[in-house]
């Protein structure tokens, strides 16, 4: 018999287990992989965007797409500055980059993982490399877990920190959702979030691998007739559509996916307004008056983009620069300022950075992370129906809810 069992050895699980153990609670951490933090190791392209350096609670909550108010208490008790202090006080130096994203100075996610592993070890947590199959319930209370090897382990409290369904190769296969449903919890619809998008247009395949930097992207919801996302940065064309930081962020705003409903408007020359761009284009055309119009475009656009761009203008590629009409020039400028693609669908959930949806927060106490349905059962991290934009906010959710759960489990629970 132990005091606390934590299921899941990711960011939330390690933080929750170490926190509970530091309170003097005998704690066991179950992880199905042979190493802890396997998914954490690949976050941020292996660099690990550990949190966001925003100082205000309201800013944190605004960056949560689903059920931000539920996190008010957890965020209040463990803010980004607390996350920064946690790692830096344990020897991991951090830095702040564009968008207030916080990374280890080393640019190595492994440093974050090792720090959490040491926290778990130093706190006296017993790590068990086994996959939990189901919860053991008695009289409406969680009293332990049973593994796939049919071994049973008993405890006063159980914390589920199993993550979502994204990146299943890291062990994130949705086990926790089955356990939550087993004891009567509602699991809201699971969808990919922070994920690449497939497009209706086939021309993206022709530009596969092309990265656009310093572009502005706006996401339009045609059904509502309004822009629901705008940001500036980098994106990528792929064989199926579009990806990259801007696209992943935009995907988090798509709540009801319907083919053709959403349009990404890409401003290829966001630093120039229409008038400035017209002057720039005129200058380029005058300097190369006898060249083909398509060749002139290579001074304005990446070479890989030019053939697709020319085709979309409807202008013959062999048209000489000095033969371009005012109307044709206007068409070029309009396309430079709005190179749009239509969203067809999300990429599969196993390619998503995070899972949108999860255990309904209506059934969880926000001040303790304890289930309102089953005593002694707690949740933290991605298993909950909370998800946020890119920029370190999702890991902050994991750390804040984990600290809350780890500080709330009761050794003397009956």
Structure description:
With 414 residues, this protein is an alpha+beta fold. The protein has two domains: 2-192 and 354-408, FAD/NAD(P)-binding domain (3-Layer(bba) Sandwich), CATH 3.50.50; 196-346, no CATH class. It has 13 helices and 18 strands. The protein has helices at residues 11-22, 57-62, 72-77, 80-88, 109-122, 175-182, 203-206, 245-251, 274-287, 293-296, 306-313, 326-337, 393-408, and strands at 2-7, 27-30, 51-52, 94-97, 101-104, 126-128, 132-138, 141-147, 152-160, 191-193, 197-199, 211-221, 226-237, 241-243, 262-267, 339-346, 354-356, 377-379. Strands 1, 2, 6, 7, 8, 9 and 18 form a seven-stranded mixed sheet that branches. α1 (11-22) runs parallel beside α5 (109-122) and α1 packs parallel to α13 (393-408). It is elongated.
